[in-house]
Write a structure and sequence with these properties.
Largest sheet: 4 strands, mixed
Distance between the termini: 21 Å
Radius of gyration: 18 Å
Strand order of the largest sheet: 4-3-5-6
CATH class of the largest domain: Alpha Beta
Helix content: 40-55%
Number of domains: 2
Structural class: alpha+beta
Strand content: 15-25%
CATH superfamily of the largest domain: Glutaredoxin
CATH topology of the largest domain: Glutaredoxin
CATH architecture of the largest domain: 3-Layer(aba) Sandwich
């Protein structure tokens, strides 16, 4: 079952964005001397509301900020923090950089795959969880580490993963 995003309405093939989204993007634009500077935060605004980006959303950002579509597409496709597929209700971002890998990220990732019954980038059947690898979440002091939504969890072990996931069920 597909639900309509809360920030827009689809009219035919066209997405119509809410006044709140338009206002948020215009407000963020005022913080930058050049419109190009507002592209990243504008894409974040849309992704936060929708869960992922679409070509229609990027065209909307281009038109709202009056920057070339190619600049918006280039920005969105360059950064790994933007998603093209809708994640589960709880997005797990697990770090696999050098520090986390040396401290045991790979066994934790394998356990997470088994526990959830999905591979990286997939969504559980109930739509509750998805996970992706992140190059770095900036918490080497607690390696291996992950974010669940925006909540940090560190010093991960398979047992600790089980405890953490119970909070989100």
């Amino acid at each position: 079952m597909t639900t309509e995003p809360k920030f827009c309405k689809t009219i035919g093939e066209k997405m119509m964005f809410s006044d709140a989204i338009i206002d948020a993007i215009r407000k963020v634009r005022t913080k930058y001397p050049e419109a190009q500077g507002a592209v990243l935060p504008a894409l974040h605004i849309i992704q936060k509301e929708y869960g992922s980006l679409s070509y229609e959303a990027m065209r909307f950002v281009s038109q709202t900020l009056k920057v070339p579509e190619s600049d918006v597409f280039g920005t969105a496709t360059f950064y790994s923090l933007y998603r093209w597929d809708r994640p589960g209700r709880h997005l797990i971002q697990i770090c696999h950089n050098l520090s986390c890998t040396l401290m045991g990220a790979e066994p934790v990732i394998k356990h997470l795959e088994q526990k959830l019954g999905v591979h990286e980038g997939e969504v559980t059947k109930d739509g509750r969880f998805s996970f992706i690898r992140m190059e770095c979440i900036g918490r080497c002091d607690g390696a291996p580490a992950m974010l669940v939504n925006d909540e940090y969890h560190g010093n991960l072990t398979p047992e600790r993963i089980d405890e953490i996931l119970k909070k989100y069920e």
